[in-house]
Amino acid sequence: KYSTSQATVETDKYGIPLTPTWSVQELLSSYPAPSISPATFKRLHELSALLPPEEGTPEYVKLKHELEELIKLVEATKLIKIEETGNVGIPDGRVIAEGSGIPLDRTPREDGDVRGRDLLSYASRSANGMYVVETDRSR
């Protein structure tokens, strides 16, 4: 179904609106604001291998608010009703048509290219074929 609007929007010669016709922020403002508990906030950082800012700091408040806004966006997308088309295959997400892309298997290798495990020789620390990264955090 298509709907038309009586409101006219000023456009350029190609029909592109000169001003935004809607806003993601405006749309999301109608959805309830989720809340992340301090424990969830800390757990998300642990799962991301990041150190969370101290609770109560401006950085903590800002980051928590940004995460809550992202959660609101995700929840809003879950509410979108889509029509079942019966097609359960994977959508074609190619940017370049099949058969016309860059032949990666025939890309010439330049002399001096270092690939694969040879890259480990440039690491400051490695062990058993793996990179070693020091961390201050204890588990």
Give short descriptive properties of this protein.
2 strands, 139 residues, 3 helices, single chain, 26% helix, mainly alpha
Task: Describe the fold and architecture.
The longest helix has 21 residues, at 58-78. The chain has a domain at 33-78. It contains three helices and two strands; from the N terminus they run H-H-H-E-E. A two-stranded antiparallel sheet has the order 1-2. The mean pLDDT is 82. It has helices spanning 24-28, 38-47, 58-78, and strands at 126-127, 130-131. The protein is an all-alpha fold and 139 residues long. Strand 1 and strand 2 form a beta hairpin. It starts with 23 loop residues before the first helix and ends in an 8-residue tail after the last strand. It is 26% helix and 3% strand.
Q: What shape does the CA trace take?
A: extended
What class would the helix/strand composition place it in?
mainly alpha
* Major sheet characteristics: 2 strands, antiparallel
Count the strands? 2
Order of helices and strands: HHHEE
- Arithmetic mean pLDDT: 82
Rg is: 25 Å
End-to-end CA span: 55 Å
Physical arrangement of strands within the biggest beta sheet: 1-2
Q: Unreliable segments (pLDDT under 50, ≥5 consecutive)?
A: none
Number of helices: 3
Oligomer: single chain
Into which percent range does the helicity of residues fall? 25-40%
- Give the DSSP E fraction (strand runs of 2 or more residues): under 5%
Q: How would you briefly describe this protein structure?
A:
The protein is mainly alpha-helical. The protein contains three helices and two strands.
Strands, helices and their partners?
Elements: H1 24-28, H2 38-47, H3 58-78, E1 126-127, E2 130-131
Antiparallel strand pairs: 1-2
